[in-house]
Design goal:
Blueprint lengths: L4 E7 H11 L12 H17 L3 E5 L7 H5 L12 H4 L2 H10 L4 E2 L6 H15 L3 E7 L12 E6 L6 E4 L1 H8 L6 H8 L14 H11 L2 H9 L7 H9 L1 H11 L21 H10 L3 H6 L7
Parallel strand pairs: 1-2, 1-4, 2-3, 4-5
Antiparallel strand pairs: 5-6
Helix pairs in contact: 1-2, 8-9, 8-12
GO molecular function: 5'-3' exonuclease activity; 5'-flap endonuclease activity; DNA binding
GO biological process, one term: DNA replication, Okazaki fragment processing
Keywords: DNA-binding, Hydrolase, Nuclease
Length: 298
């Protein structure tokens, strides 16, 4: 009998962004936008129904700049400002999470990604038999996937979900999860303005990582000129070595953020159903109230 307990870690900002852009605009009678909150809760409810977790915790970004901005001034420089429609919905999501008694973590100087990596590490130290699902709207967390950690993310729409385990990551990207940072060191990440190596696309990057396992090995081979690569690719790699190494550092999620995390505090299901119903009715999410009974109470 499988006695594994499950933890869902919510990547809140990524999920809100995805919901905001995936759903048609939605607002309360007073004009307050609520579409991102609705999409966020719709996905969370589905994840809870699908995964039946014992524990749930949420992470958020803060407005403060992070250590990545100090390493690379142009980090996320070309990213447009977060739409005000999302910004005004963040406090609302936090209120709903509070009603559900789901703990929230955010820390200046770090991104939600770093908190996710840290919580994953601490949770497994507190219960090594745990199965962790990261609920997110983007692919940054794929680097954490292993035998105990999976990604639960959105497909094309808000109702279509995909679970990434090790095999699914390899199938999609051609590299293992623990090679995703090396892969991104070469391809870069336009959404975060991470440069990577100019001229190297995903297919070439996957082939290089398959052959050399890591960019450290790759650059060792380039140094001794034993790397078997097209001259054009070799030249691009040599010219962009600094960018590649910096990019790898920028995409790596830090798992040593100093936070006070206790797995037991994240036990899900001990909320006051009436208070949650009141909150959902106040947001005019009547259809979600009907779904409440489907969420398991441990």
């Amino acid at each position: 009998m499988d006695d594994k307990k499950r933890l869902i870690i919510i990547d809140s900002n990524a999920l809100l962004h995805r919901a905001f852009h995936a759903l048609p605009p939605l607002a309360m009678k007073n004009g307050q936008e609520t579409g991102a909150v609705y999409g966020y809760l719709l996905t969370l409810f589905k994840a809870i129904k699908d995964l039946n977790p014992e524990y749930v915790v949420a992470t958020f970004d803060t407005k403060a700049k992070t250590f990545r901005h100090e390493k690379f001034l142009d980090y996320k420089a070309q990213r447009p400002l977060t739409p005000s429609g999302i910004v005004t919905q963040i406090p609302i999501v936090k209120e709903v999470l509070e009603a559900f008694k789901i703990p929230v973590f955010a820390k200046d100087g770090f991104e939600a990604d770093d908190l996710i990596a840290t919580i994953s590490k601490l949770a497994l130290l507190q219960n090594n038999n745990l199965e962790i699902f990261i609920l997110t709207g983007d692919m940054d967390s794929l680097q954490l996937v292993n035998e105990k950690i999976k990604i639960y993310t959105l497909g094309k729409g808000i109702k279509d979900t995909i679970i990434y385990d090790i095999n699914k990551v390899v199938e999609r990207f051609g590299v293992k999860p623990d090679q995703m940072n090396d892969f991104k060191a070469l391809t870069g990440d336009p959404s975060d303005n991470i440069p990577g190596v100019a001229g190297i696309g995903k297919k070439t990057a996957a082939e290089i990582i398959q052959k050399y396992n890591s960019i450290e090995n790759l650059y060792d081979e380039l140094l001794t000129d034993t790397a078997v690569l097209k001259p054009k690719v070799k030249e691009a790699l040599r010219q962009n070595k600094e960018n590649a190494l910096m990019s790898r550092e920028l995409v790596e999620m830090k798992n040593d953020v100093k936070i006070d995390f206790v797995l037991k505090d994240c036990e899900f299901g001990k909320f006051d159903k009436i208070k949650v119903e009141e909150k959902l009715y106040a947001l005019e999410f009547n259809s979600l109230v009907e779904r409440l009974s489907l969420l398991s109470h441990k």
